[in-house]
C-alpha cells in the first residue's frame, strides 16, 4: 500500500459545490413530494429526499418548489391542483430495506408529468447502508437518472472532484470532494509535492505526479477502492 494515508472523512466545505450554468432561461418547476417509508427507515428516507432535492437545485435545470401545501401531501396525485400551483414535474419516492441479508435499501422514484397528467417514468435504485461512504454517491446516481428522464442526458451530481491543496508547511497533498461539497477527504500524506490528479475513464483510479521519492517527479496511480498505489513506467 506504500505511503498512502488511509483516507479519513473530514467535514464538508460550506458553500462549495460543483455546477453547470445552462444557456436556457427556462427552468421548469419541479416539486419533491415527501418520500414514503416504513417507520424504521424514516431518517434514511428524509436524508435521501434532501440529497435529491439539493441535486436538482445545483443542476441549474429546475426551479425546485420548496414548500408544498399540506393538502397535497398524501397518497394520491391531484394533477389539476399541482398544475394550478405552477408545477411542471412532480417527483414521488419511497425507501425500503433490501430483502434478505445486508443493510442496504431500495429507492423507488416515480416522476409525474403534471402537464399531461400521467406518470412519465419509474425506476428503482439500490443504495448501500447509510453509514457506507458511497451512500450519498448512490443517491446522486439516482438524481442523475432523473435528469436523464426529463432532458435525455444525465445530470452531473454523481461527480467527485480530485484536487491538490497546499498546506501551511508548503507541501501539497491530494483530496477529493463530492459535487455537492460533502465527503471532503484527504487521500495522500506524503509530506511532499503531489499534484495534477487525473481520474481514470471508469472513475476508480487516480493518476498523479509526486516528488515523494528522491525529490524527483514521477507519475503514480492510486486505486480508490483498494487503496493500492503503483508507480507507472517512465517513458524514455
TrEMBL record:
Residues 29-117 form the TolB N-terminal domain. GO terms for cellular component: periplasmic space. Coiled coil: none annotated. Gene3D superfamilies: TolB, C-terminal domain, TolB, N-terminal domain. GO terms for biological process: protein transport. InterPro entries: 6-blade_b-propeller_TolB-like, TolB_N, WD40. This is TolB N-terminal domain-containing protein.
Amino acid at each position: 500500500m506504500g505511503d498512502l494515508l488511509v483516507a479519513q472523512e473530514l467535514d464538508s466545505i460550506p458553500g462549495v459545490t460543483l455546477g453547470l450554468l445552462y444557456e436556457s432561461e427556462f427552468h421548469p418547476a419541479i416539486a419533491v413530494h415527501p418520500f414514503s417509508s416504513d417507520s424504521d427507515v424514516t431518517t434514511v428516507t428524509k436524508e435521501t429526499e434532501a440529497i435529491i432535492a439539493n441535486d436538482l437545485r445545483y443542476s441549474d435545470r429546475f426551479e425546485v418548489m420548496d414548500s408544498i401545501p399540506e393538502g397535497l401531501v398524501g397518497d394520491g396525485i391531484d394533477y389539476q391542483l399541482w398544475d394550478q400551483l405552477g408545477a411542471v414535474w412532480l417527483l414521488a419516492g419511497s425507501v425500503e430495506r433490501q430483502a434478505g441479508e445486508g443493510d442496504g435499501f431500495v429507492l423507488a422514484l416515480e416522476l409525474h408529468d403534471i402537464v399531461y397528467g400521467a406518470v412519465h417514468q419509474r425506476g428503482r435504485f439500490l443504495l448501500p447502508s447509510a453509514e457506507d461512504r458511497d451512500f450519498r454517491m448512490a443517491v446522486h446516481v439516482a438524481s442523475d437518472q432523473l435528469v436523464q428522464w426529463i432532458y435525455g442526458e444525465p445530470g452531473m451530481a454523481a461527480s467527485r472532484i480530485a484536487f491538490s491543496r497546499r498546506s501551511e508547511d508548503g507541501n501539497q497533498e491530494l483530496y477529493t470532494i463530492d459535487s455537492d461539497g460533502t465527503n471532503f477527504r484527504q487521500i495522500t500524506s506524503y509530506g511532499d509535492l503531489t499534484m495534477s490528479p487525473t481520474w481514470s475513464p471508469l472513475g476508480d483510479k487516480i493518476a498523479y505526479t509526486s516528488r515523494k521519492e528522491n525529490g524527483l517527479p514521477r507519475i503514480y496511480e492510486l486505486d480508490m477502492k483498494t487503496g493500492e498505489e503503483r508507480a507507472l513506467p517512465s517513458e524514455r
